[in-house]
Specification:
Structural class: alpha/beta
CATH architecture of one domain: 3-Layer(bba) Sandwich
Shape: globular
Number of helices: 15
CATH superfamily of one domain: FAD/NAD(P)-binding domain
Bound molecules: 3-acetylpyridine adenine dinucleotide
Largest sheet: 8 strands, mixed
Length: about 525
């Protein structure tokens, strides 16, 4: 437990020890702020602490999945291009040792409520076990996947085997070898855990509602020589991140697929496919996510590539249907390694829950309209109340006594994706209406993080004690991003990007969809105009 005496009058209380929170911690500390971090888990890593299911790994190449501070990358080597959760956690421990983070962190400290003391311009935040923090600024970095979503399936509690959500995986691990394993969900988590289970499960049954239009990861083991070369390129690599739409360092081709000759287009698709990662999604023709015609071209290429790997045509029809279930890339594609090939194995089967809906979970397994699947382990890879869930699940009260769940019940309102009217001195990183789900996490942690830090510095330098978002400014922000969203194909899929994966959640873009460089530019414009859109006093 942290020293309570020194926590009485913090400048900043940070919530969450993922990339974003840790960046805030060491930068603010270096700048002389009295800062402390409260983390719900027992270790660093944020999503990498909770999502320790078999097969969990980044879907970002390691070169940009790290902090760019000089003293943090020189003597750190990655073993794979897309590292496992275990290696990412080792990386966080390495960063902790380098920067001595731990002394300013309270672990197992889940903030459950917070109120603003208007007489002192201070937040009073409490953990669920009664610890209290007082801070001038509350800096919330709970990330987009802080609140797992468990669907209301009848009988879930009656299952006698092991049942876990991927984001609440037992920290001590759970072997799937030889077991009858069922996985509900085929998002990134479902794809990854299923792939791993297919290696040694006795029987693996995957319950699919919507096919995942997954892309080839093109994983690679990295040697010392690979790391040496990567390090030579890091300064350029890091620079390229900030200038790219999603902070990945690669960007859309400024040409239209529909206006490109078929043989040229196909050669480009082949090249992107072979290069792997998200390139086929985010380094492709600029019209892919806006024009139905361009999108069909991308889908058709994807479908033919995938179907060629699946032996049973009936299974291929489910995984990669002739006609797209939704436009390509508007629901987040996952990166896969042997996801499609594993359906050729005898121990793997697919259940289409549209054809055979899940009726209930029984003590023995999953009962669909076509029969019962007996299981030893039931894995819920059912995703998250994404982006807003981290904030709405804490009872943070506005000056009018309302929490985020109430204030955002009809729609999300933020100024620049960092603050909401009624919550003075509360700032969020990697949160709603910021690039968040549309940006590589570590890139956002540093780029958006720096903007937040500059704002806090500005307040300190000018002797200001309070900021608050202006209601009209946040209405304009919300209008702008939702209007842009409507020009894209994204609204055409049910996805966590727009809250439509959660029954009853208001459907709107939860992320800033215009790209990281535009976001930074808009934030800077506000800063240059004395933080226009905020009242500073
Ligand atoms: O969650 P999801 P996720 N009955 O919401 C299904 C990041 N991430 O945890 O598509 C049956 O994508 C649901 O079906 P449908 C990444 O950003 C990254 O997989 O709604 N099925 C869907 O298939 C990712 O996008 C990594 O029809 C039900 C699945 O559950 C984000 O986290 C790894 C159902 C949920 O998919 C979320 O991914 C993991 C029901 N009642 C996650 N309810 C990396 O690689 C839901 N589903 C870094």
């Amino acid at each position: 437990m942290a020293n309570k005496k020194s926590l009485g009058e913090l400048d900043v209380l940070i919530v969450g020890a993922g990339f974003s929170g840790i960046y805030q911690l060491y930068r603010l500390r270096d700048l002389g702020f009295n800062v402390h971090l409260a983390e719900a888990g027992s270790g660093f890593g944020g999503v990498w602490h909770w999502n320790c299911y078999p097969g969990a790994r980044t879907d970002t190449h390691c070169q940009i999945y790290q902090f760019t501070r000089d003293d943090l990358w020189h003597d750190w080597n990655w073993s794979e291009l897309f590292p496992t959760w275990r290696e990412v956690r080792e990386y966080f421990d390495y960063v902790d040792k380098k920067l001595d983070l731990r002394k300013d962190v309270s672990f197992n400290a889940r903030i459950s409520s917070a109120e603003f003391d208007t007489t002192r311009n201070q937040w009073v935040a409490k953990t669920e076990d009664g610890q209290t923090f007082r801070a001038s600024f509350l800096d919330i970095n709970t990330g987009f996947g802080a609140k797992p979503y468990i669907p209301a399936i009848e009988g879930l509690q009656s299952f006698k085997g092991e049942c876990h959500h991927t984001a609440l995986w037992p920290q001590q691990g759970l072997s799937l070898a030889g077991k009858r394993v069922g996985v509900i969900g085929t998002g990134a988590s479902g794809v990854q855990v299923s792939q791993e289970a297919s290696l040694d499960a006795g029987q693996l049954t995957i319950f699919q509602r919507t096919p995942n239009l997954a892309l080839p990861m093109q994983q690679k083991k990295l040697t010392e020589e690979d790391n040496r070369k990567m390090k030579e390129e890091y300064p350029e690599t890091f620079k390229a991140r900030g200038g790219s739409f999603a902070g990945f360092g690669f960007d859309f081709i400024p040409e239209n697929a529909t206006e490109t000759a078929p043989e040229v287009r196909n050669a480009t698709y082949e090249k992107l496919w072979a290069a792997g990662g998200f390139r086929y999604w985010l380094a492709t023709y600029q019209d892919t996510l806006f024009s139905e015609e361009a999108n069909s071209l991308a889908y058709d290429f994807w479908r033919d590539k995938v179907r060629a790997r699946i032996k049973d045509p009936a299974v291929a029809d489910k995984l990669a249907p002739e006609t797209p279930p939704h436009p390509f890339g508007v629901k987040r594609p996952s990166l896969e390694q042997w996801f499609y090939d594993m359906f050729n194995q005898d121990n793997v089967s697919l259940v289409d829950v549209n054809e055979a809906p899940i009726e209930k979970v029984t003590s023995k397994g999953v009962l669909t309209s076509a029969g019962e699947h007996e299981l030893d382990v039931l894995i819920l890879a059912t995703g998250f109340d994404a982006v807003t869930g981290g904030l709405t699940s804490i009872d943070i009260r506005s000056t009018e006594g309302k929490n985020f769940k109430q204030v955002w019940a009809d729609k999300v309102r933020t100024q620049l994706g960092v603050a909401t009217a009624g919550f003075p001195n509360l700032i969020f990183g990697y949160g709603p209406q910021s690039p968040c789900g549309f940006c590589n996490g570590p890139t956002s942690a540093e780029y958006q993080g720096e903007l937040i830090i500059e704002m806090l510095q500005h307040m300190r330098d000018k002797g200001l004690h309070r900021f608050e978002a202006v209601p009209e400014a946040q209405e304009a922000w919300s209008k702008m991003i939702n209007e842009f969203w409507a020009t894209s194909l994204f609204p055409k899929a049910k996805s966590w990007y727009q809250g439509s994966n959660i029954p009853g959640k208001h459907v709107e873009t939860l992320n800033f969809p215009m790209g990281l460089p535009t976001y930074v530019q808009k934030f800077r414009e506000s800063a240059d105009n004395g933080y226009e859109g905020f009242v500073l006093s």
